[in-house]
Amino acid sequence: MVANPILYIALPLFTAFLVPLLAKLWKPLVRIIPGLVLAYLAVMSVVLMQQVGPDKPIITMIAGWKAPWGINLVFTSFSGFIASLISILAFFIWLYSFKFKKVEFDDAQKYFILFMLLTAGSIGVVLTGDIFNMFVFVEITSLSAYALTAFYKGRDGAEAAFKFLLIGSFSSIMLLLGITILYAYTGTLNMAQLAMLMPQVPMHAKIVSFLLFFVALGIEAEMFPLNGWAPDAYSQAPGPIAASFAGILAKAGIYALIRVSYTIFDLGNDGGFELLLVMGLITMVVSELVAMRQENLRRMLAYSSMGQMGLIMIAFGLGTKEGIYAGLFIMFNHAVIKSLLFLASAYLVYYTSRKKISDLDGFGKLLPLTSLLFGLGAFAIVGLPPFSGFWSKLSLLIATADNHMEFVLATILAVSVIEIIYYFRVLGRLYFRKANTEIKVRKPTWNSVVTMISLAIVIIAVGLHPDLITGLLHNAANTLADKAGYIQKIIPDLFSQTLN
Amino acid sequence: MNQILTYSVYGAAILTMLIGIFAILTKKNLIKIVIGMSIMDSGFNLLLIALGYIKGGTAPIFSPAVEGKDVIMVDPVPQALVLTAIVIGFGVTAVALSLVIRLYRKHNTIKIDEIKTLRW
Amino acid sequence: MRKLVIISLLLVLGYYLLDTFAGAEFGKDRKVLSNYYLEKSPSELQVANAVTAIVVNFRGFDTLGEVTVLFLAATGMGTILLRRRSKHTGLNPQRTSPEASKIVQAAGKLLFPAIMILGAYVFIHGHLTPGGGFQGGAIIATGFLLLLISYRQFKVEHKYVTWIESLAGLTFVSIGLLGIVLGPHNSFLENFLNVGTLNELTSGGVIALVYIAVGFKVAAELTGILDTLVNIRETGDID
Fold first, then answer.
1. What whole-number distance in Å separates Cα of residue B29 and Cα of residue B12?
2. How many domains does chain C have?
């Protein structure tokens, strides 16, 4: 098997260009081929994760030019972990959606192309070692997200997509300005070289550029108050796409935010981390409070998702290794559990166009398996044992306690109570209300059942045996914290020159 | 002298960008908002291309005319980046316009305050 | 009132941006990436146009991304707009504009081949003179735009557009993948052909080939987008 990080990008692009031609041969190829590609990428992630180590990242040159002259892909324990997470999740989401009887052939073809490019773009954001190339991938991701948001014509998809696009265009211009300021002062675009040359950038330029990056990527990472696009996009997009917004798009956004604030800028201890921490706190508190008041199930899940993103920002805002570890653990859990919740909720609200929580009375009897899986996801996301969510929340609480941030700790606990209240409200309706017998429900197809059960198995397995992934997480956390190592491994020649 | 040039060149580019942002934030017509986005992009492109200028530089092309001569060439990197930025801006504009068309078909208006579902 | 607030906020933003950029003096040489590129472009790649060398080779990955963005825009527009394809009746009922005058129509017909040749020239000589795949492709698309606005019944066959954009995109990625197999460093998008001599049409190895593929792809993509915007086939309600 050929395992080369470049295939993460090249293969989906190749397939995306090929699919319109294949469709002329045999129409089901349009659904099958993207799945094969995503399966290949998922298997390749496993292979690559075994080759990579904290001291030996896989660095891929492009066009035969070494960094910093050419663009390179950097597959470290940290970026590789996120890339693997994205690629495996993408395969599951494809499995969930590949039957997709509801839409016509022409739309299905575009759906799979867009979904595949959304995945490829997100992995590109994670793996690239070049700041401008990251911008290009952010744009690929956002453009496919805009189109997928407006995918269903019967809903208010176009409105949600237009809002998303408007905010997204601000995001891209700010990202570009941030990149341009860095280029103006250092003359380079390679992340490692930027990190190395950062001390020579004057302080005021550094701050302006950092804030521009922070706002631009905060939009992608659903940071409050820049997340106005998210609830609409989540609730109007097709179910599996909402799952991939939470599991793939937001992960790429938060990754970029972390990469910029940890590796490129050296502002961490001059207020960079505090800013992340405070914004994370605000995001979490506001989103969870709003989530409690939602009538619409999808919107509730969307706000809950933002609350989780806030939690991740808090974890990374601590600036310690334990914090990074906790943040990565929450990222993993959020990706898996939120996907399960969104996928299960797609069936719960399948025929009710209002998607209200109050319409879910007694669904526990009508859709026993889906409701059970939804309940499992709800238990896991609020952090109850023995599910994986428990361990991630516990590690975050320990990390905050180590930093002596009692206020943060208390807030997280208080917010967890809110989370429990609104998730259990839904569960109460599912199980303890009488069903309206006139409601026609749609039984999940076999492929979606397989998908949801696989995700549930991951949640339970990690919950019972957290050591399944803690080793990976520790490696990833150590790699991110080691900034000098990152620079040294990517541009060894230039790094040794500066030491002499 | 160079100071004046610096401020006027960068200032003009930034002003263009701000005009675009102003249009996005205040205009009620969806088409005008999309035009504002284009203006914003153009302002940024101007800024980036101005950044690549090197005093006394010529175009970075090694044509027979400059062969063997000691010429200064402008920084080619921003030019390549601007090309990328323009293409991406075009893609976003195209998608935005198609969304506007769909909104118009649905609501029969392109006034942002007459489309209730478009309010925040 | 609201406008005043917005203006003052924008002025603050503008002040900080201007202040930051003014610190990087206008016309200053940054000497990090650019000098390396200006040195290697004519010597190792034998490409006269340094911008082309950067766009296609040094930062070729960005260009692949750009091409994908255009492809995405075209696909996304298809998702957003076209749903039920009604039988195309030649004359689009949505287009109420009057037919262009005879002068415009005749001139359009006359100019069209010349525009095609100019576009092709620009992208074939992308490594020698200013211009390249994107510029050439855009020029070709303007030729089709001219026909679209002069003839109401003119429409682009989407079948051919799909074929051209797919094949051109596949060529681009395939050349990139061949670089992994044949290139001296086994890396994606690497040059594996003889680079020839500076300022000749056959110089630059794969750079010229990639830019020709990009030219076709951009031309097809832009033409498709323009045709979608002008001739939306769907009539009436969307829901």
1. 26
2. 1
**pLDDT tens column, A120-156:** 999 999 999 999 999 999 999 999 999 999 888 777 7
User: Looking at residue C88, what is its pLDDT?
Assistant: 42
Does the beta carbon of A207 lie under 8 angstroms from any beta carbon of chain C? Answer: no
A 130-189: CB under 8 A from B: 132, 136, 139, 143, 146-147, 150, 156, 158-159, 161-163, 165-166, 168-170, 172-173, 176-177, 180, 183-184, 189
3-state SS assignment for residue B73: strand
CB A115 within 8 A of CB A241: yes
- Asked whether residue C191 is domain-assigned, the answer is yes
Please tell me the distance in Å from B48's CA to the nearest CA on chain A: 7
CATH topology of domain B2-118: Helix Hairpins (1.10.287)
State the residue range of the domain holding C129.
49-82+99-239
**Reported pTM:** 0.94
Q: Is C184 contained in some domain?
A: yes
Tokens representing C225? 């987008």
Q: For residues A136 and A172, what is the distance between their CA atoms, to the nearest angstrom?
A: 9
Residues on chain B touching C130 (C-beta within 8 angstroms): 59, 61
In 3-state terms, what secondary structure has residue B67? coil
- Neighbour-count burial of A449, counting CB atoms closer than 10 A to its CB (0-12 exposed, 13-18 middle, 19+ buried): middle
Strand ranges in C42-190 using DSSP code E only, listed in sequence order: none
Per-residue pLDDT of chain C (239 residues; tens, 9 = 90+): 888 999 999 999 999 999 888 887 777 777 678 888 888 888 888 888 888 888 988 988 999 999 999 999 998 888 888 654 444 434 445 555 677 888 989 999 999 999 999 999 998 998 888 888 899 999 999 999 999 888 877 878 888 888 998 999 999 999 999 988 888 888 888 888 888 888 788 888 888 899 999 999 999 999 988 888 877 655 443 33
Nearest C-alpha neighbor of A195 from the set A451, A491, A493, A406? A491
Instruction: Compute the nearest-CA separation of B80 from chain C (Å).
Output: 6
CB contact under 8 A, B92 and A172: yes
pLDDT digits (tens, 9 = 90+) for A298-320: 889 999 999 999 999 999 998 88
Q: What angle (nearest 5°) sits at the alpha carbon of residue C145, between those of residues C105 and C207? A: 130
Sign of CA dihedral B112, B114, B116, B117: negative
The residue of chain A with its CA nearest to that of B33 is: A166
The answer to whether residues A456 and A389 touch, using CB atoms and an 8 Å cutoff, is no
DSSP code for A222: T
Q: Quick check: is C42 in a domain?
A: no
On whether residue C92 sits in a domain, the answer given is no
CB contact under 8 A, C51 and B26: no
Omega before A386 within 30 of 0, i.e. cis:
yes
